Amino acid sequence: MPRKKRKFPEVPSASLADIAFLLIIFFIVSTTMDVDTGIYRLLPQWVDNVEAPKINKRNTFVVLINKNNDIAINGEFAQVSDIKDRLKEFILNPQDKQHLSEKKEEIIEGIGPFMRSQGIVSLQNDRGTDYGAYMNVQNELVRGINELRDEYAATRFGMKMNKLTEAQQEAVKKAFPTAISEAEPQEIK
Predict the structure, then answer these.
(1) What is 53-82 written as a DSSP string?
(2) How far apart are CA 39 and CA 135, in angstroms?
(3) How does DSSP classify residue 137?
(4) pLDDT tens, position by position, 43-59
(5) Strand partners, 62
(6) Which of 15, 93, 144, 161 could be bridged to 87 by S-S, CB 3.0 to 4.6 A?
């Protein structure tokens, strides 16, 4: 005798689609995305027909990064950890050494007469340099300048840079400007 087919109740599939759609939306909204890191700098406005200023070789702190991520500072191999301290020494030049930047007296509003370094940083990397190595060097250069500012602010005003008034911060930034020149990548040996 043949068996009778049983009828099972149907499961409504319309609500399953709604639930799946809500789950997709939940995961899209709650998932975090990795954001590429970058360098936040305000670039100067482009000006036509302007000659580059003549800079004494003594006033240039040259940092090179080759395709193997090796670093050279003024022609000598160095580690990333050396950059900050060597930059600070280059800018401060407390003993007026001939191979470090020269100073020029300037009147800075809020500070008065100040012997400001004429030094600039020249950063150049190879086309094959890792982005991470490049960012590490950038971070050390900026860290060195920020430490100089903090140390001067503590000496001059008795507090760290971020605690100063806006006018005082501008004065310290004029005393220790972020002077980093970046050349177009090329082959560095």
Answers:
(1) PP--GGGEEEEEE-TT--EEETTEEE-HHH
(2) 8
(3) H
(4) 667 777 777 777 788 88
(5) 122
(6) 144
